[in-house]
Amino acid sequence: MPKHEVPIAIEPVKKDAVVEEPITKETIAEVKSEGKVVYLTFDDGPSELTGQFLDVLSEHDVLATFFMQGSNLKKEHLQENVKRAVREGHYVGGHSMTHNFKTLYSNNQFVPEMKETLALIHEITGTNPHLVRPPYGSAPGLKNEEIRHQLAEGGIKIWDWTIDSNDWRLRGNPAQIIENIKRGTNKDREIVLMHEKRQTLEALPEIIQFYREQGFEFAVYDDAHHFVLNFQNDVDL
Question: Catalytic residue among 43, 44, 160, 223, which?
Fold first, then answer.
């Protein structure tokens, strides 16, 4: 089964540096985690704007993590940019089929919907992603331990975020999105929640510039190097 892999850039070794053991993918991941790293994430795609997001990311040489919704993935005219995202090194994970709180959480359809969404991504791109983002966040959504157990048994991982840009409610106000992100950045590893919205697209170049000026490296999710990031603090996810 095809596997999603993203090349990792290796920093050149300084002439006076002492290397005691071979550099491997694992040690690179450890080194990167010691520096300042930011993951840009975008929910609710694919959309009519996906291609433009990819253009901006490509222009600035940044990889991102997309959480895509099944109802949109089914739209054939949007699927080419899903393929393009994977082709260019971005990660495409799941974001449910319906994005409906009652259906997902009250009616216990979270696991079936995520499995269906991940299967759709595989069908479109040939990748085999395991990461999903719970609509509205894992708290309070995934307080049900049985649902979390089903996810763990199915090998499905979840990610929430460290910074909520609140971009979805800021139509026509990209400056406030940028301000929200700047104000929320206070750790050496940040995962920024954004959506495929026009105002976010307008803010994106300045967001990238901000993180570069702050000395952050941009990272993309890698199934092989998952780290726990959920509001339930569930180490199995």
Answer: 43
